[in-house]
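Progress note, project year one: complex with copper (II) ion.
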Amino acid sequence: MRWVLVLAIVACRSPSTTPDLVDEFANAYPEKATPDGKLVEYEIVAAETEVELVDGKPLRVWAYNGTVPGPTLRVRLGDTLRVKFTNKLPQETTIHWHGVRVPNGMDGVPHATQPPVQPGESFTYEFTPKDAGTFWFHPHVRSSEQVERGLYGLLIVEDKTPPPYTREVTWILDDWLLGPDGQIFGRFNTPHDLAHDGRWGNAITVNGRTDTSLTVASGERIRLRLLNASNGRIYAPDLAGLEAKVIAVDGLYARTPSTLERFELAPGNRLDLDITIKGGGRSLVVMDRFIPQRPNRLAEIDVDGAAPERTFQSPARAHVPAWSGGLAQPVMHEFKLDARQGGAFGIEWTIDGKAFAGHEHHHDPGLVLDRGKWVRLRFVNASARLHPIHLHGMFFKLLARDSVPIDEPFFRDTVLIHGRESIDIGLIPLDAGDWMMHCHILEHAEAGMMTMLAVREK
Ligand code: C2O
Ligand code: CU
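Model obtained:
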């Protein structure tokens, strides 16, 4: 009798509630692009060059179109972007469109989605973004060296009707490891970087400068788009003294605007802030407080003069499901993140005991997912180091950290996993193809912490 009762309880708790989770998700973001016929064309050339950066002295970098950060590409939702890319670097490379749901063949993953672009060769990327937001692009070949040398830029996909901010500001955070000669330290993937949280630099820049400042007038309402383009460093931007609301994370709008608490901006992450400027005649220093004992200055905001107040409804009212029932669902797969000795660098970073070798032409997927189906995935960090895990081709929702439920009002494409921590995420892949999943600490990725998620039609 007892048994029957227990079984009955188990039986009524276990029927799959995933259809509800799929329903909750419906129309959160579009399945298909809706091109409206407009083509926006850019040319991008990657080459070695010298720029005045960091402290204004000449710095030898690798750059897109001769500047670091590279050009900001801007399209409006519905536009088709065509980028003719030419590689003038001494190495092969690709461009990956981080966070953009592109057709798989445009994803820039060497060997998997395209052959790497050889020195002197060109490749044309073309796609119609499905989502408006703050995205970025960077190489996916030897990225711990190529991104560090200065190859990255923003891709901004504007809303069909952009909200009427008085101005839009983009801040790209990076840190540089400079040698005694003031140039980029030329050894990459060192045992030190690999055994720790990647390559952390000794000079932090915002838009390539250590003295970035912004002058705004009281009454203005600005949209600040932040990107962390560092190889390994994580920032916790502190805008104390400003009325700053988070409106979008990793491109997509949030369900509701939220106050900027401590947000850990890991490599790859973007944060869009809606800032109402109040009170004139003052200066504020924006600090990074990721390591509370060692804060870093990022930039300065000076409030000078007054402008007519700009009031409009926050654009952060996207459909982001709570998925509170998600934790009742079984974990479909648990990824184990760890390190071991061995490999080309002496240390390998592994996912489920495997170290990815980027030069190989064939990869068995680490996991196969059905398109359109809700899944709960768990990541268990068996190491003491940080791993910002990034998924290509899809967005996910953080459901729990160390089994403690979390309801962030936004999706992500990158989430920081702390040492020895486990996280659960929920997602519904909408785009079929072979998508990379990797740690965005680029040294960890280079030393093996990458795998593929294959999304198949059911
Ligand atoms: Cu910025 Cu494979 O990613
Ligand atoms: Cu990592």
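The chain has five helices and 29 strands.
The longest helix spans residues 2-13.
No further modelling is planned for this target in the current period.
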